Amino acid sequence: MLDDQPAPRPWWKDAVVYQIYPRSFLDTNGDGVGDLPGITARLDYLKDLGVDVVWLSPHFDSPNADNGYDIRDYRKVMAQFGTMADFDAMLAGMTARGMRLIIDLVVNHSSDEHAWFVESRKSRDNPYRDYYIWRDGKEGGPPNNYGAFFGGPAWTFDEGSGQYYLHYFAAKQPDLNWENPKVREEVHDLMRFWLDKGVSGFRMDVIPFISKQPGLPDLTPEQRRAPQFVYAAGPKLHDHLREMRREVLDHYDTLTVGEAFGVTPDAARDLMDSRRGELNLVINFDIVRMDIDGWRKTTWTLPRLKALYTQLDQAAEPFGWNTQFLSNHDNPRSVSHFGDDDPAWVERSAKVINTLILTQRGTPFLYQGEELGMTNYPFQTLDDFDDLEVSGRWRDVKHRVSEEEYLANARAMGRDNSRTPMQWTAGPSGGFTTGRPWLAVNPNTAAINAEDQAARPDSVLAHTRALIAWRRGCVDLREGDYRDIDPDHEQVFAYRRGGLLVLLNFGRDTVRYAVPAEHPISGVAFGAAGIEAQTVTLDGWTSAILTVGAG
Ligand code: ISL
Ligand code: CA
Question: Rounded to an integer, what distance in angstroms lies between the CA atom of residue 109 and that of residue 120?
Answer without folding.
Answer: 13
